[in-house]
Amino acid sequence: xxxxxxxxxxxxxxxxxxxxxxxxxxxxxxxxxxxxxxxxxxxxxxxxxxxxxxxxxxxxxxxxxxxxxxxxxxxxxxxxxxxxxxxxxxxxxxxxxxxxxxxxxxxxxxxxxxxxxxxxxxxxxxxxxxxxxxxxxxxxxxxxxxxxxxxxxxxxxxxxxxxxxxxxxxxxxxxxxxxxxxxxxxxxxxxxxxxxxxxxxxxxxxxxxxxxxxxxxxxxxxxxxxxxxxxxxxxxxxxxxxxxxxxxxxxxxxxxxxxxxxxxxxxxxxxxxxxxxxxxxxxxxxxxxxxxxxxxxxxxxxxxxxxx
Length: 308
Fold this sequence. Notes:
308 residues; alpha+beta; Arc Repressor Mutant, subunit A; 2 domains; four-stranded antiparallel beta sheet; three-stranded antiparallel beta sheet; 13 helices; 7 strands; 54% helix; elongated; coiled coil; DNA-binding; DNA binding; DNA-binding protein; BRO_N_domain
């Protein structure tokens, strides 16, 4: 048996499956069709369009397990990425056509009404006459063996027409909103450019902005006339300090006495003392808590310390 003979015979749907699902759900739901011609649909898509709050609950309430499978099981030996063309998750829950119809029958949205009525008409006709057949379209295929074209049932056709009209109205309304949003964005961009031009003119007239400054703190009266050694001696007399704290204090004291403030970052102090940044940080916190120094501001992204 050659490869051509092993290929499954393509199956033709009497009703276009896209129109069929559109009439049932009111939306163009994504679809996966296996090489054998069986149609599967993402359960989340169907439940969302039918108004179900939770996909898992809807499946448990309305769809037996034999009519729903994860994508990996549906695709079987085929590549799910190749067949789906959507990069769907391998554990995505899918329902076949029977499962989709069960979700439709359990839906309470008025838009499902015409489709449900047609399904009832099919069942009643089968019960009364023993079969149900779609009328073939007036235009028959000319080529021998070509697929017969069937007329869509009136209930399904009416539902499709109404849904398409609603979709067109929604598309027109969305396009109008997008045009309004684009116009508003253009107006905002023009306004921002105008503001930028005004600010640019003001900046050009005023020249470059001065660098931020922190008012220099005058040395506290009790520290005036005292040298760094006296300040350190006073700290050591009332504090029990570690070598780390003392190294930081010895570095800060001369600048504090002379200039009244120090503007060094933790990394600068670490580089000057040979300590790690973490140990410098802990030492500064100790001096702050013991009221030896206080932070009076930030300049050039570094704290400014003065005597307490």
